[in-house]
Design goal:
Protein name: Ribosomal RNA small subunit methyltransferase I
Structural class: alpha/beta
Strand order of the largest sheet: 3-2-4-1-5
CATH superfamily of the largest domain: Tetrapyrrole methylase, N-terminal domain
Number of domains: 2
Strand content: 15-25%
Domain Tetrapyrrole methylase: 3-201
Number of strands: 10
Organism: Candidatus Nomurabacteria bacterium RIFCSPLOWO2_01_FULL_39_17
CATH topology of the largest domain: Cobalt-precorrin-4 Transmethylase, domain 1
Helix content: 25-40%
Subcellular location: Cytoplasm
CATH architecture of the largest domain: 3-Layer(aba) Sandwich
Distance between the termini: 45 Å
GO molecular function, one term: rRNA (cytosine-2'-O-)-methyltransferase activity
């Protein structure tokens, strides 16, 4: 039976990859990558010489058909994203669903767990972690205001990802809908400029506005 390994890779620091992940990538027949250029950095560091093929949100049906064909031939594949755990706010979730629905009797889907920004941020945030809701990436327009109202009314910690292009707008919305809540912005987790900042939304907005260099990087936002 063919195997598809869902392999978590580092979210920043390349030293965070697990021994099992390295061993898996060395032994599969092909590695499916969100961006082959990003994955090559990890493969080169750990001397992994395996063929790669791109699979991302814009991949056409023909690419999925090719993946199905390889699995039917008995090939073992690994799926990786650019960073973190495939399938978590990631196009890999769709591929796994398609395989589970169409090839469920001929393919084993095996998780190789490891880094994910969501859990890393929660563990170091200092906010309550016994209950939390993960929202992934917030919508750009439709439903965005409704979601901020939901965040404001929530009794549990809310966690979501945000891009540097929208972090100020997000903090403006949090200031509007839940001005007194404690918010943590975790930036560039595991990287050189890693930073965790906890305050009210208004103070965080002021901090980032006064320090434009701090607006760069990938953000995980947590609202207590």
């Amino acid at each position: 039976m063919a195997k598809l390994y869902i392999v978590a890779t580092p979210i920043g620091n390349l030293g965070d990859i697990t021994l099992r992940a390295v061993e898996t990538l060395k032994n599969v027949d092909l590695i499916l990558c969100e961006d082959t250029r990003e994955t090559k950095k990890i493969l080169n560091k750990y001397n992994i010489n395996k063929p790669t093929m791109s699979y991302h949100a814009q991949s056409k049906l023909a690419k999925v058909d090719k993946i199905f064909e390889l699995l039917r031939e008995g090939k073992d594949l690994a799926l990786v994203s650019d960073a973190g755990t495939p399938g978590i706010s990631d196009p890999g979730a769709m591929l796994v669903s398609q395989i589970k629905n169409n090839l469920r009797y001929s393919v084993d889907v095996i998780p190789i767990p490891g880094p994910t920004a969501l859990i890393a941020a929660l563990s170091a945030s200092g906010l309550p972690t016994h209950e939390f809701t993960f929202l992934g990436f917030l919508p750009h327009k439709k439903g965005r205001e409704t979601l901020f109202k939901e965040i404001a009314e929530s009794k549990r910690t809310m966690v979501f990802y945000e891009s540097p292009h929208r972090i100020l707008k997000t903090l403006e919305s949090l200031t509007k809908f839940c001005p007194h809540k404690k918010v943590c912005i975790a930036r560039e987790i595991t990287k050189i400029y890693e930073e965790f900042k906890i305050d009210t939304p208004a103070e965080l907005l002021k901090y980032l506005t006064q320090n434009p260099v701090k607006q760069k990087g990938e953000f995980t936002v947590l609202v207590a």
